[in-house]
Amino acid sequence: MVRSLIVSGTSIDIIPKKGCHSLKLRIDRKTGKPQVIIPFLYPIFMVQKFIESHIVWLQKQISLTPQKITFKDGMKLSILGQELIIRHQDKRIGGVFIEGNILIVTGSSEHLHRRVKDFIQKQVSEYVSVKAPKIAEQLNCSIKRITIKDTISRWGSCTSTGHLSFCWRLGLAPLFVLDYVIIHEVAHLVEMNHSWAFWKKVAELNANTRQAKKWLNENAPYLHSFL
């Protein structure tokens, strides 16, 4: 169970961490909640004094952090470029599915957010699993594994062993943006760097690099706001 302190009306989660030798205040990028990272067995009264000395800075960071969004009945969103409206229908069965421009979510309302998130992750997984191998074939390379993750620090990644991963939130971006990230990561299977040769391969695959990077730069806070 996560412990917390309330300082000047602000609740801060206390996170003990192995190998930590000093206190660190931060806003958790996934949850948007303030946290203080502390060494194990660090005195709580010292933690409180540390937070009190930085509370003005912390509250400013909280005010600058976009409010986290959960999926709700009636919400409009775009999934893989398709504009949809969420409709919760608890009397129906079948999980989550699309009817026209409606995203039907069945079952209890308390599970709506998780079910929509799982649905988007599945859609991204299926799309990438078709798109990425086609690009790899063009580059005469192979993919060992593809995973969809709940990441904040990066949109995609590629390992030297051929493992690609992508952030599920890309399913909420325009398709040309998702396509760019897929091309970017697959190209790393050939060039594990950001050299001129790497960007040349990306350009040859019509990645809409400039437009996609511009869209991600402008809309990253929106995508990251989804829990």
Written description of the protein model:
The chain is an alpha/beta fold and 227 residues long. Helices cover 37% and strands 23% of the residues. The protein is built from six helices and eleven strands. It is globular and about 60 Å long.
Helix/strand layout:
Layout: E1 3-7, E2 10-16, E3 24-27, E4 34-38, H1 44-53, H2 55-64, E5 76-79, E6 82-88, E7 96-99, E8 102-105, H3 112-138, E9 145-149, E10 156-158, E11 163-167, H4 175-187, H5 196-204, H6 209-224
Parallel strand pairs: 2-4, 6-8, 9-11
Antiparallel strand pairs: 1-2, 3-4, 5-6, 7-8, 10-11
Helix pairs in contact: 3-4, 4-6
Broad shape: globular
State the total count of DSSP E strands: 11
User: In the CATH hierarchy, what is the class of the largest domain?
Assistant: Alpha Beta
Helix proportion of residues, in percent? 25-40%
Main sheet overview: 4 strands, mixed
> What is the number of helical segments per DSSP (H or I, 4+ residues)?
6
Secondary-structure element sequence? EEEEHHEEEEHEEEHHH
The end-to-end distance, rounded to whole angstroms, is: 20 Å
CATH superfamily of the largest domain, called what?
Answer: Metalloproteases ("zincins"), catalytic domain
Structural class by helix and strand composition: alpha/beta
CATH fold-level assignment of the largest domain: Zincin-like
Number of domains: 2
